[in-house]
Amino acid sequence: MHIIYGGGKSMQIAMVHGYFLNGTGSNLLVQNLCREFCKMGHDVRLFCQESDGYQFDFIEKVYDFDVKNTIPTLVHQKETPYRGKCFLFRPNLNSFLPVFVYDRYTGYRVKPFINCTQKELENYLNANKNAFNNGLEIDELDIIISNHTIMQPVYIARSSYNRQRSIHVMIMHGSCLNFAVRKSKLLQTYAEEGIFDVDKIIFISNYSKEEFISFFDWEKNRILKKAVIIPGGVDLNQFQPLNNCEEKKIKITNTLKKLTQERSSSVANSFEVINRTKDSTIKKLSDIDFEKDEVVIYFGKYLWTKGIHLLIAAAPIIMQKSRNVRFLFVGFGSSLSYFEAMINALHNRNRVEFIHLIKHPVQLGYEVDQTTVSYFDSLIKRLEEPSFADDYFSTAENKIKKAIVIVGYLGHEHLNTLIACSELMVAPSIFPEAFGLVGIEALASGIIPVQTDQSGFSEVVNVCQTEFADELGHLNLKELQLDDHLVENLGLNISALLGYYRTLSPAKKQVIRKKAHQICVDHYSWEIIAKQYLKMLND
Questions:
Q1: In this structure, are residues 375 and 484 in contact, taking their beta carbons and an 8 Å threshold?
Q2: Which residues pair with 112 in a beta bridge?
Q3: What pLDDT is stored for residue 266 in this prediction?
Q4: Of 231, 252, 317, 337, which one has the fewest beta carbons inside 10 Å?
Q5: Which CATH architecture has domain 247-521?
Q6: What would the mean pLDDT of 366-380 be, rounded to a whole number?
């Protein structure tokens, strides 16, 4: 079968995703691929749990299912601006939602996969399988795209849909392997069922492919025959650099106005409502002077795996050289209380408590892997030096709570402005990452990302080192390896970059912004990425 994508035959695509369309990397990948397919004139049947489907510009119809997932009922319909049409189907899961990493979701009983019984998993599989079987009113699909190694490929494998003229493609996301399959023989068995059934396996980086093969080494030959590497993408209409430094005030003012309007009119989606911090996001953002403050932004989940506690520990080192630095954290997650405890200890100059927090988080009841303590070793030794310790704690005392601004989840329609108006983006993840998506979102916004040099992050790190060698080479930045010097090196690199930016004229800053954005234009636009998915049919 020969398909001319983007202009010839309109393709029929099923996108199978068990979760939502905002918040995490896999959610955003699904959202953007579906939108791009519709822009190209292809029709998409999207199976997921998104409750606010009517808010997405590419979704024309939304269907809910009865308790047995046999009858889909149309609950929303609207015109969309694209030639291709997307119908969203929400399987009825009886409120049960297994996840890779625990978090709260309104209306669901959430349970990590590794804690689920086989009966619970089979019920979940059957519900989704029935919805897929009964939601498709078309006779022929060209491609079925399943997300995650479990459980989407499994219930497609078990479905009654006749796949004689379609191919089944699985996208491997890192959280599934590392937080679930790797930790359970039962889940590993389900994963093998999916691997056997699919025709292609998409990896978003070479690292994710090698990691997957390393774990499923007995399936190495089968996986290699099916493996295709296609990176994640970025919405270049949504993530754009500033045209000039003077735009900061205007853009921030407009963002705050939009947030105020949404809060007063209850427009904010359910995902944003549940993950909003107790304090006013708007007030916290209003207290930042984006024109004068040196804003360092982190956005993503508030999990220890993301290394946020390392950035907090590095903050006093950075504050010594950058008195007006502000660390802006945007996200949600279960490790927030641990991070806040660290900040409070630093703010109150409670040296004993702070060191106890970074050395013995598990003893204090926080869900933090004890092995991460090693990343603090060098800092802990330095804190035994009276002069270093005095400078470190006196810098943080009564100041760090103002320096670190923690807000809840914000959608990309607001987040994009905050990134573009920041000086740097930091992603100090200490757990394997399939791909550095946050890094390319920063680049698209004209901002250089500071990321740990590990797993899938390394691919974006290498791009930045190559592309910005002329501008940044003289700074002799430290490699952010996962070792006992990580906290200090993180602090030194951020300090060096902020110091360098202070010396730049607005025109030279603009050169860096445009160069960063062009990297994404050339390699990471969703149009380019979507075409690579459909090219598999031609191949």
A1: yes
A2: 99
A3: 53
A4: 337
A5: 3-Layer(aba) Sandwich (3.40)
A6: 89
Kindly list the distances between the CA atom of residue 196 and the CA atoms of 61, 157, 170, in Å, as whole numbers in the listed order: 33, 9, 11
Say how far apart CA 113 and CA 150 lie, in whole Å. 9
Tokens standing for 505?
């004229």
CATH class label, 12-233+525-538: alpha beta
Please say if the pLDDT value at position 418 is more than 50: yes
Backbone Cα Rg of the chain: 23
How far is CA 154 from each of CA 31, 126, 134, rounded to the nearest angstrom?
A: 21, 10, 17
Q: Which of 347, 351, 272 is nearest to 52 (CA)?
A: 272
| AA identity, residue 87 | F
The b-or-e profile of 264-284 (16+ CB within 10 A means b, else e) is: eeeebbebbeebbbeeebbee
Going across the sheet that includes 294-301, the strands are: 404-407, 325-332, 294-301, 424-427, 449-451
3-state secondary structure of 47: strand
Tokens 């399988």 appear where? 129
The predicted pLDDT at position 277 comes to 39
415 vs 429: CA distance, rounded Å: 20
Paired tokens of 372: 């991460």
| pLDDT score of 530 more than 60 | yes
Give domain limits for the chain.
12-233+525-538, 247-521
- Global pTM value: 0.83
d(CA 491, CA 220): 40
Cα–Cα distance, 93 to 89 (Å, whole number): 12
User: Smallest Cα–Cα separation from 333: which of 175, 191, 173, 440?
Assistant: 175
Burial code (b: 16+ CB inside 10 Å, e: under 16) for 191-215 equals: bbbbbebbebbbbbbebbbebbbee
Cα–Cα distances in angstroms (integers) from residue 106 to residues 77, 91, 270, 274, 399, in the given order: 23, 16, 7, 7, 36
Helix 437-444 with 506-523: angle, nearest 10 deg: 130
Please, what is the end-to-end C-alpha distance for the chain in angstroms?
10
Does residue 245 register a pLDDT over 90? no
| Distances in whole angstroms, Cα of residue 83 to Cα of each of 48, 166, 526 | 22, 22, 17
Res 8: pLDDT: 58
Residue 98: its H or E element = strand 96-99
The residue to which tokens 């993408």 are assigned: 233
Q: Which two tokens stand for residue 457?
A: 């992050």
Same-fold call for 12-233+525-538 versus 247-521: yes
pLDDT at 364: 78
